[in-house]
Write a structure and sequence with these properties.
The protein is mainly α and 172 residues long. The chain is built from 8 helices and 4 strands. The strands form 2 sheets. The protein has a two-stranded antiparallel ribbon with strand order 1-2. Strands 3-4 form a two-stranded antiparallel sheet. A hairpin with a 2-residue loop joins strand 1 and strand 2.
Length: 172
């Protein structure tokens, strides 16, 4: 489905979108993520994202992706893609933090599990880009370090260790 949608033809930091999606999925798997989250990592850009607007599939066709990867994984892909980052990132780690859906404008307060999955997927995505992108610069690392430090309560130990290794995140 990724190949049919042209993911191996779309440029992305560090190569093609397909290569990035595979690396993100592999990184999540290496952290011990459950299969639905690993699948979501492979497909996280299907609907585009707030940071990468190229969509492989219109959100009106969610059932097609759900049929291919399962409803739980597709729901994770939609949740990830729907994030209005500027509005949602600052309070993601807060129990009552508001999450804004960029497709609908709706706001919600996701439960801890949803916020944890979102954080792990975001960290895998961003750290892959940091590692492979020749254009990645120290200022971006500082921004990621600050963000991931705020999100520390949501991250697994393997994800947190990878953060420390890639962007020098400090703390426990």
């Amino acid at each position: 489905m990724l190949t049919a949608a042209g993911a191996e033809e779309i440029e992305h930091p560090g190569g093609t979108l397909l290569a990035h999606l595979r690396r993100t999925s592999e990184l999540l798997a290496s952290w011990g993520a459950r299969p639905a989250l690993v699948s979501a990592g492979l497909c996280h850009a299907f609907y585009g994202t707030d940071g990468f607007r190229v969509a492989l599939l219109d959100v009106g066709r969610r059932a097609e992706l759900a049929e291919a990867i399962g409803t739980e994984a597709e729901a994770l892909v939609y949740f990830y893609a729907s994030c209005d980052r500027k509005a949602s990132y600052p309070t993601l780690a807060d129990d009552k933090g508001v999450f804004i859906d960029r497709f609908t404008g709706a706001d919600m307060c996701p439960d801890h599990d949803a916020r944890r999955d979102f954080a792990e997927l975001t960290v895998a995505n961003e750290l892959d880009i940091a590692v492979v992108s020749p254009g990645f610069h120290p200022g971006q690392g500082q921004d990621l370090r600050a963000l991931f430090t705020r999100w520390r309560p949501l991250l697994s130990e393997p994800a947190w260790a990878h953060c420390r290794n890639v962007v020098g995140t400090t703390g426990s």
